[in-house]
Design a protein that fits this description.
heterodimer; A: 658 residues; OB fold (Dihydrolipoamide Acetyltransferase, E2P); 4 domains; 17% helix; SPIDR protein (chain A); DNA_repair-scaffolding (chain A); DUF4502 (chain A); DUF4503 (chain A); metal-binding (chain B)
């Protein structure tokens, strides 16, 4: 039974009641006379008895005073005496062996219940009942009756008769008082503890204590007060398997399966002792709320109750989680020392970083987290430390979490078409003013790899495909010269409200963005700018093809009904204004990287009405290579596909920055 | 019959007391024990553990699912007193010894105290829940 729950309370009450009953009965037998205390005693005369389930219902008349005072002749039914329905449990009924005309004394505590549409009050909890024998004459009668079995009518209750608990008035309230699953945690925001039964105990401040008391009676009611350090989403199901597969798993691509990925909202919380825990809340149907939760919840205190332990994980097995914990260590305010009393003065910041962490989840889909959004930010909260990209690139750390605010210039998705766009790994090329304004030594643009395990909101995905955006990368990983976004990294469109901006520049970039020019240090999978002279054309790569103007499908077909029209089977519609894509590979001579053969795939798109398309295709067939040779190609933005040393060749593709 | 009206009134009092004070007074708990006997404590335990879910389909059709102590999920109807648990079949249907089983009582108590979980499902899913019960017994 739940400690402090209603069931436990009733058990206690019931035990007490039972002892009282047996004590009272024993007393009645031994005293052998009516107890003198008359206050609260109900005196009734049974008129009729029937049974419903195991309850005996006695229609009675309430008597003013004990009939022992009156002579048998006076004990006539007085029509003016009130009628009562007295209920007896089977056990009491067996004890009483009552029959019509019997007089029963019912001692307190009994309860009276007034029914809504009935005049006759009902008397319950009639455990302390005693039959009163009027005279010796009755005693003899009693003995005789005791031998013959009395048949009591039993009413069968219809199952069709259900109980209606609501009046018309509170029908409206009934809908809102039930908890909703799945439910936006908003409904619990104002600390509305009325939603929960009153069984929750006092608030604790130790996660470890809560975890250690798991399974013990009443652990469910233990509430722990914690600070929400981070809010993020984890892909459900795949979330933990990647971490247990060893250190290689960090940044590994999780290939999504065909099912729509479900995503769980998670909190990284810290208690007053500095201990961390990851709490996995409900699945989110839409990832759009991530930004909202981050803004309203991070830094606030909350109470956790009824948590279930999913896992106890250690540093070696959950590198990603611990890299986030390490970024929050040591705590910014002194924390309590375990083993000392709650009010102890012993606080410290000098503790070793945590080596284990509990991962908790909520019971059966219900939210056991109450966040008071009105509250102030806790002192224990460590907002993400935002740094300029040049500082991050120069830091020595390995697998450290870093946060920065940058402009996304170009996005490159992994090419597997079978995986939906929002689950693909992608490369984002970003820059900020710290990189743009520096002259030497540091690249102007840095590639940020976003793995499929980093959950992106729809908002972000759309923003990234639409145009150049400033994005806040919260808790990305930096290591081995690369920045990667993995699980627990959150991409946000708005600047963080609070962040320790240690020299970070959150301003917008002024002026046009400059890319590094192609040179001997240029590596594959980067972007650069180049200029040069066309020295050759790879005619075999000259290609033009129509694409669908709606979805970009490059494999259009001829429309069966009218073979002059083009048809896109991804949109299932005729394409009336296809976009003509033309590509060509040219060889350039670039002074900045003169030793290499530079091969650039250039392309062009023209949107056209169909008749013009045919004209254009005819025209293209007749272009001359000669007219292109020797032409100067001015600063072209490109993506570097590959760089090989033997042969010394750089293969690039012209790109358009966002 | 008297007992259903008494039971209903008792549950209404519990609901009223809970809405007003977020507490259920001792007398009402003892009243539950008096009327429902051995089902009272287990039913309250089910409520403490939030084991009751109201399942609703778009048409408005509802039923209740109660997670029993054994981990088994029982279905209780909304339109009449029926539960798929064996105790219901025995105590209520066969012997007419009880008004309700602990699961149905837990449903009412959860309603009274706002402790029902809510689950929205499709029409088909609701039908399947109902049909699944039939198959088991068949």
């Amino acid at each position: 039974l739940c400690r402090g729950g209603l069931a436990e309370r009733l058990c206690r009450l019931q035990n007490r009641e039972r002892s009282a009953i047996s004590f009272w009965r024993h007393q009645c037998i031994s005293d052998d006379k009516i107890p003198s205390d008359k206050s609260g005693v109900l005196i009734v005369k049974i008129l009729e008895i029937f049974e419903e389930c195991t309850i005996q219902v006695a229609i009675c008349q309430q008597l003013e005073q004990s009939p022992a005072m009156l002579s048998p002749e006076d004990a006539v039914i007085n029509a003016e005496e009130p009628i009562l329905k007295v209920l007896f449990t089977r056990e009491t009924a067996v004890h009483l062996k009552s029959r019509p005309q019997d007089v029963i004394h019912i001692y307190p505590p009994w309860q009276k219940l007034l029914l809504q549409n009935a005049d006759v009050p009902v008397i319950m909890n009639t455990y302390f009942s005693q039959k009163v024998l009027l005279s010796e004459h009755s005693e003899a009668r009693e003995k005789t009756y005791g031998l013959t079995k009395m048949l009591i009518k039993k009413n069968i209750i219809s199952l069709a008769q259900t109980f209606r608990l609501d009046d018309l008035d509170d029908k409206l309230h009934r809908e809102s008082s039930d908890n909703q699953v799945p439910c936006a945690p908003q409904t619990h925001n104002n600390g509305d503890s009325k939603q929960h039964p009153s069984a929750l105990s006092a608030v604790n401040d130790s996660l470890l204590e809560m975890v250690e008391s798991q399974g013990a009676v009443g652990w469910r009611e233990v509430q722990v007060r914690v600070v929400i350090q981070r809010v993020y989403c984890l892909p459900a199901r795949e979330g933990y398997r990647s971490h247990t597969q060893g250190s290689k798993a960090l940044g590994a691509t999780l290939v999504a399966n065909a099912d729509p990925p479900s995503v769980r909202l998670c909190l990284l919380v810290q208690d007053a002792y500095g201990m961390f825990s990851e709490v996995q809340l409900q699945s989110l149907s839409s990832t759009d709320d991530i930004e909202r939760y981050c803004r309203s919840w991070e830094g606030k205190s909350c109470c956790l109750a009824g948590m279930k332990i999913l896992q106890r994980t250690t540093r070696g097995r959950a590198l990603g989680l611990f890299s986030l914990i390490d970024s929050l260590w040591p705590p910014v305010v002194p924390v309590k020392v375990p083993g000392q009393s709650q009010d102890s003065e012993m606080m410290t910041t000098n503790l070793p970083p945590p080596s284990f962490c509990y991962i908790l989840t909520v019971q059966s889909g219900e939210i056991h987290v109450e966040v008071d959004e009105e509250e102030q930010i806790s002192n224990l909260y460590q907002p993400p430390a935002v740094h300029g990209l040049n500082e991050i690139l120069r830091s020595d750390g390995c697998n450290e979490r870093c946060s920065f605010w940058a402009q996304v210039l170009y996005r490159r998705l992994q090419s597997k078409q079978s995986i939906p766009i929002d689950q693909r790994e992608m490369l984002l090329f970003v820059t900020d003013s710290t990189l743009q304004n520096v002259v030497l030594g540091i690249p102007k643009v840095v590639a940020v790899s976003v793995t499929a395990s980093c959950v992106l909101s729809m908002e972000i995905t759309e923003a990234l495909s639409a145009g150049s955006r400033l994005v806040f990368f919260k808790d990305a990983l930096w290591g081995n010269g690369r920045i990667i976004c993995v699980e627990r990294t959150v991409l946000l469109l708005q600047k963080p409200l609070l962040c320790s901006a240690a020299g970070a520049d959150l301003s917008e970039l002024t002026g046009p963005v400059r890319l590094d020019e192609l040179d001997s240090t240029t590596q594959a999978n980067s972007i650069c700018a180049l200029r040069g002279t066309v020295v050759g054309v790879n005619e075999s790569t000259a290609f033009s093809w129509p694409t669908c103007n709606r979805c970009g499908n490059g494999k259009l077909e001829l429309y069966p009904q009218d073979r002059e029209l083009l048809y896109c089977n991804q949109c299932s519609e005729v394409v009336t204004t296809p976009v003509l894509k033309m590509q060509l590979e040219v060889f350039l001579s670039c002074p900045s990287r003169s030793q290499s053969t530079v091969k650039v795939k250039v392309w062009h798109e023209i949107s056209m009405a169909l008749f013009a398309l045919l004209t254009m295709l005819l025209f293209l067939q007749t272009y001359e290579v000669q007219s292109v040779l020797g032409k100067e190609v001015g600063l072209l933005n490109c993506y570097v596909h590959s760089v090989t040393s033997h042969p010394n060749c750089v293969a690039l593709e012209e790109i358009v920055l966002l | 019959s008297t007992l259903p009206a008494v039971a209903e009134e008792l549950l209404r009092e519990i609901k009223k007391a809970f809405q007003e004070t977020s507490e259920v007074p001792d007398e009402l708990l003892l009243g539950l024990k008096f009327i429902f006997g051995p089902s009272a404590v287990p039913a309250l335990d089910l409520v403490d553990q939030r084991s009751v879910t109201r399942v609703r389909a778009p048409s408005g059709r509802t039923l209740y699912q109660v997670l029993g102590s054994s981990g088994k999920l029982y279905t209780c109807y909304s339109s009449c007193h029926f539960c798929t648990c064996p105790a219901f079949g025995f105590s209520v249907l066969q012997k007419s010894e009880s008004l309700l089983c602990k699961h149905i009582l837990a449903v009412y108590l959860s309603q009274a105290m706002g402790a029902c979980q809510e689950l929205a499902v499709s029409e088909e899913q609701l039908t399947n829940i109902l049909l699944a019960e039939e198959e088991d017994e068949g």
